[in-house]
Amino acid sequence: MKRLAGLGLFAALASAAPAAAHPVPFSFVDVRVESGAVLVTVVAHVFDLGHDLDVAPPERLLEPAVLGAKAGDVADLVRTRLRLASNGRDLASGEWSAPEALPERQSIQVRGRFSLESAPATVTLSTLMFPYDPAHQTFVNFYEGDEVTSQAILDRGRTRIEYFAGTRQGVWAVMRRFVPEGARHMLTGSEHLVFLFGLLLLGGSLRHLAFVVTAFTAAHALTLALAALNVMTPSLQFVEPGIALSIVYVGADNLMVRGGRDVRAWIAAGFGFIHGFGFAGVLREMDLSRRALGWSLFSFNVGVEVAQLLVVVALAWALAALRARSEQAGRRVAFAGSIVVIGAGTLWFVQRVFFPGGMA
Fold first, then answer.
1. Pairwise CA distance, residues 163 & 184, whole Å
2. How far apart are CA 45 and CA 25, in angstroms?
3. Strand extents, DSSP E, the chain
4. pTM for this one?
5. Which of 85, 95, 180, 326 could form a disulfide with 124 if both were Cys (CB 3.0 to 4.6 A apart)?
6. Cα distance between residue 244 and residue 195, in whole Å
7. If pLDDT is split at 50, 70 and 90, which confidence band does 131 have?
8. Residue ranges per domain, the chain?
9. Coil, strand, or helix at residue 341?
10. Under 8 Å between Cβ of 255 and 129
11. How many angstroms separate the CA atoms of 334 and 194, rounded?
């Protein structure tokens, strides 16, 4: 938020410079979310509008007669390059005001109103406002009431942001998005599955194994929250190799254990503590509001825990069935499986330390 505010202040100050030098490759969009409407304010620099509307010099757009003659073109440009959707449905019938000159900012302002049939759960904004300029950025502020609840920067590399409203519908939208995301993260994460496999190789009661993987979720939730809220943000340069080493450790611990104390819950917590940092960057890049971020963290971890328990039940049942048929076969699988776990963790560690860009 501070970074965005600083960039916005810089842009506002820079806009006082002569437009001919084009020192301000920025546009600004304010989106106000209300129960029955979405209100949009777009501010664009005359240099960009003049380029796309063939007005030279572009400062002429600040003259009432010229702006009046180009009013329809300005509205059409904004309407075609800025798309809004609510609850997944495009808002195509907005009412746009006549463009207004802002001489002190060398800019033109246009306001839009989009009526809604129901309170929005999500509002999605998509725009590449001035494609001719690869450096152009659009600063987006979402408001509920008078409070700025979310900020983002859109550019050629990122043209879309989805905002979750601070309503009951918005909370359910967050949960519908992030519970499946947490489950997918768990079920498609090869390192996560290998780690779980390593934890389950030595067996135990289903209750105890559920406790072990829940220790992972608790630690994962803690560090995910700390990182997503920017309280603690270690570099992925250290996090990713750390995840690989934790996998090596669980396999080695399986081979070294000789009937001593079962510390798999502590190992799972350690892995979760490191692993949580790995996903936090994805949440930060989504520019969620603080309220939505809290619910996304909760929902994501619910999805992780549910998927983990399903995997635990399936793997624990299969391994228990094998040991029930042959205790010796069970020990062999535990030994061989631990070697595989160590090998996989070692391979990932080498890749992330010595070949971070990928092996050719």
1. 22
2. 8
3. 26-33, 37-45, 82-86, 89-91, 95-96, 100-102, 107-115, 122-127, 137-144, 147-154, 160-164
4. 0.67
5. 85
6. 9
7. very high
8. 2-165, 169-354
9. helix
10. no
11. 13
Q: What whole-number distance in Å separates Cα of residue 165 and Cα of residue 144?
A: 8
Which two structure tokens, joined as six digits, stand for 232? 């603690």
CA distances to 30, 34, 287, 298 from 149, rounded to whole Å, are 11, 13, 10, 19
Amino acid identity at 258: R
* Cα 112 to chain centroid, rounded: 28
pLDDT tens sequence across 182-232: 888 888 888 888 988 998 888 888 788 888 888 888 887 888 778 767 777
Q: What is the rounded CA–CA span in Å between residue 138 and residue 66?
A: 25
| Planar angle of CA 154, 159, 161, nearest 5 degrees | 80
Structure tokens belonging to residue 230: 């920017």
- Tokens 């081979």 belong to residue: 255
Q: Chain-centre distance of CA 214, in angstroms?
A: 24
Closest CA to 338 of 278, 264, 236, 260: 264
- Distance, in Å, from the CA atom of 299 to the CA atom of 307, rounded to the nearest integer, reads 12
Helix (H, G, I), strand (E, B) or coil at 2: helix
> 22: phi > 0 → left, psi -120 to 50 → alpha, else beta; which?
left
Extract the tokens encoding 219. Answer: 């630690």
Distance CA 326, CA 320 (A): 10
| Residue 176 in tokens | 């519908």
Amino acid at 262: D
Start-to-end Cα distance in the chain: 39
pLDDT at 278: 66
Q: How far is CA 315 from CA 182, 203, 259, 309, 322, in A?
A: 20, 10, 22, 10, 11
Question: Please, how many CA atoms are within 13 Å of residue 105, restricted to the half-sphere of its CB?
Answer: 18
Residue 342, both tokens: 């160590």
Q: Which of 192, 190, 187, 209 is nearest to 200 (CA)?
A: 209
Tokens 């408001």 sit on residue: 143
Q: What angle do CA 64, 70, 74 make, to 5 degrees?
A: 110
Question: Pairing state of beta strands 37-45 and 82-86?
Answer: unpaired
φ/ψ of residue 328, rounded to 5:
-65, -40
